[in-house]
Amino acid sequence: MSKVTVVGSGVMGKGIAYAFAIGGYEVYVNDLNDDILANAKNDIDALLDGSFEKGFLKEDIYQNAKKNLVYETNLKVAAEDSSLVVEAVLEKMDLKIDIFKQLDEICSQETVLATNTSTMSPTEIGAQTSRPDKVVAMHFFNPVHKMKLIEVIRGLETSDETVDFIHETAEKINKKTVEVNEFPGFVTSRMNCLIGNEAMNLLMEGVASAKDIDNAMKLGLNHPMGPLKLADIVGLDTRLRNMEYLYETLGEKYRPCPLLIKYVKAGRLGKKSGSGFYEYNEEVKCGK
């Protein structure tokens, strides 16, 4: 059984850890302190319990997944001897680079280091390590336990061996992959950010309500979820960071909607805070 480490236990980190655990991997989840990890454990356990009770997981997979999850604040303990480390922290380049420099010191030279970034450059991240050939972007989608896709983005120096390893690993956890040439925002984030930003502009201009904008996209353009609801699930602070990066790298058409900036300043961060473009109940605020 291979060991995988997930650095960061936010929404994406928890989902990624869940996916690897039910895929049969030994999974170490790393974050800053025990309180954060205790909350992550509660949420992952609740997802495992719900999946088992609804019949989505067989009992042996459910029991093994719970046994295979380890929660560890010490990055060295969490990451040493791992075949793969997936970083899933905030979309801040300085933070990601700092983590990858630490991982480069801790991990074997055979370990593949992957970033779950939705917009940023694996080339830039990999260049700060001694193993740019082993650095790749492995972009999961939210909610990870439902979404089948992983975008695989190679950096300038990423080897074919590393890319093949990620494709094979994705298949083992029942995900599908698309391979993307590195460019800011890749494929899905560029498209999604544009659509979401325009939906926010429509709402700000009073063209239609959030509900009607989302229903128009679902019923008229066959989107499975409206762009405003999706932004709430992703987190409006995360979406704003993505937009700011794309605006900086790709130009004017990615300028963040003023309403998005206002909501983030007000602490309306979406589902995780209890309010965004929609209101959520107390149970949702607790991450259930």
Automatic annotation (TrEMBL):
Tagged with keyword Oxidoreductase: yes
Occurrences of domain 3-hydroxyacyl-CoA dehydrogenase C-terminal (ranges): 185-280
Record GO biological process: fatty acid beta-oxidation
Record pathway: Lipid metabolism; butanoate metabolism
Ranges for domain 3-hydroxyacyl-CoA dehydrogenase NAD binding: 3-182
Record InterPro entries: 3-OHacyl-CoA_DH (IPR022694), 3-OHacyl-CoA_DH_NAD-bd (IPR006176), 3HC_DH_C (IPR006108), 6-PGluconate_DH-like_C_sf (IPR008927), 6PGD_dom2 (IPR013328), NAD(P)-bd_dom_sf (IPR036291)
Pfam families registered for this protein in UniProt: 3HCDH, 3HCDH_N
Residues involved in NAD(+) binding: G8, S9, G10, V11, M12, G13, D31, E91, K96, S118, N142, K272
SUPFAM superfamilies according to UniProt: 6-phosphogluconate dehydrogenase C-terminal domain-like, NAD(P)-binding Rossmann-fold domains
Chain positions of site Important for catalytic activity: H139
One Gene Ontology MF term: NAD+ binding
UniProt keywords, alphabetically: NAD, Oxidoreductase
Membership in a protein family: Belongs to the 3-hydroxyacyl-CoA dehydrogenase family.
Protein name: 3-hydroxyacyl-CoA dehydrogenase
Organism: Salicibibacter cibarius
